[in-house]
Amino acid sequence: MRMLTRSGNPDVARALTNIVWLGLERLTQIAVAIVISGLLARYLGPDAFGKWQYANTLLLVIAPITWVCGAEILVPTIVAKPPAQTGAVLGSAFVLRMSVSVVALLLTWTWIAAGGVDPLVGAMLAGLAVTLLFREPFIGVINAWLQSMTYSKPQLIASMCTAIVKAALVYMLVCMAAHAASFGWLWALEAAAIGGALVLYYMRRHGGTLGWRFDRALFKHFASAGTVFWLGLICMYLFLKLDRLMLAHRVSFAELGLYSAAQQLNENWIALALMLSQTIAPAFVYRVQETPRLKRNLLRLFAMTAALMIAGAAVLDALAGFIIARVFGPNYAGAAGIFRWAVWLSVPAGIEAIGNLVVLKFQARYVLLSKWLLALAVAFAVNAWAIPRFEGYGALVGLAAGYLAAASVNFYYIRLRLRA
């Protein structure tokens, strides 16, 4: 690790160190996700596991509601403001996010109580939804501060430690033959632990006090400037979960469980591209002002991401049958074919994530919104045609079409914005 810090460029050194920690955290999360998915899939069975995955899908559709004033607004603001104003920036963002998160949680619980979803799905979602109070108000705000310094190590260490503890607790509940609804509360406990650890770290870096304060002007700015980005992110996550939302109305929960098992593993792999883009953004995109240098950086990032995603997808494709059998057991053999095709979605997903950095750098919020609206519309149209005919494989076609649509908008914007 020390060798990485000897680079002549401090931004490059920080980014490289960050990438190493990112890799360790992602490997840990992938390993933990595989262990937990295998435990729950075998314990719950395909039907209940399908309901568990559907509850998680609903959470990930609800969660973007709490993303008002996201990192694409907060990180550039922290970078642009003097250090003395960091407390006001973070405090104002916290108040806004916590207010929205409380409303989102109460509405979710009300919907569950009113019988808006399958009883077991609702019982699972009730615990999972508590994560809304910790993810964005605490973890998201402090992580934006860490991203602004290209230093995500504290958040990554906290995430790795709590993930391992969560896996141990899942194993304990399985051994105790706990009710399926109990597992959702472990995710809430994990979020609370990470949030608490990051708050303590921030206070230690600032003389033992939090120092966050509410600034009305910043609050209004975040609420207004972030609205278009917010709507864009909601569209993005609807697009990412549209496959399972539409499949749930066409197939049984057991079949949805097979598809979700494959996608559970695949999404951990795709998340590498998204996290990679987030950790390198400040040093290689956000802080670069010269157009020729930015173009060079983007070309290198596109090439690096494509090579990484293709190599990884090839390995996962070859090992798909072995991975599914070892993780989920013989009852999930049908997920192997879906997984074999799904891993190749990481290539357009990674390319899209890098192109999206330019959209965020120039705060092109209407481009972001238009892009994900287009991707959502394309995926919906393709899914409506393909899912009745090919079921899970049709859902993969819809995802691929949506990613290609989003990446095309990125390339068109980059061509116009960086024309020299």
Explained architecture:
Helix content is 81%, strand content 0%. By secondary structure, the protein is mainly alpha-helical. It has one domain (2-417).
The secondary-structure class comes to mainly alpha
How many extended strands? 0
Total helical segments: 15
Average pLDDT number: 88
Q: Helix and strand succession?
A: HHHHHHHHHHHHHHH
Note the gap between the termini: 39 Å
**Strand fraction:** under 5%
List low-confidence stretches: none
Q: What does the largest sheet look like?
A: none
Radius of gyration: 21 Å
Tally of structural domains: 1
Helix content: over 70%
Specify the overall morphology: globular
In short:
By secondary structure, the protein is an all-alpha fold. Helix content is 81%, strand content 0%.
Which terms summarize this structure?
globular, 0% strand, 420 residues, mainly alpha
Topology:
Blueprint: H1 10-62, H2 71-80, H3 86-113, H4 119-128, H5 132-148, H6 153-175, H7 184-205, H8 216-247, H9 253-286, H10 291-318, H11 320-328, H12 335-342, H13 346-361, H14 365-390, H15 392-417
